[in-house]
Amino acid sequence: MDVIHREAIGRPADEVFAFVADFANNPRWQGGMERCTWDGDARGVGATYRQEARFLGRSILTTFRVTAVEPGRSISIESLQSTFPIQVTRRVESTDDGCVVIAHVRGQPTGLLKLMSGLAARSIRKDYAALKALLEAPLT
Question: What is the pTM of this model?
Answer without folding.
Answer: 0.88
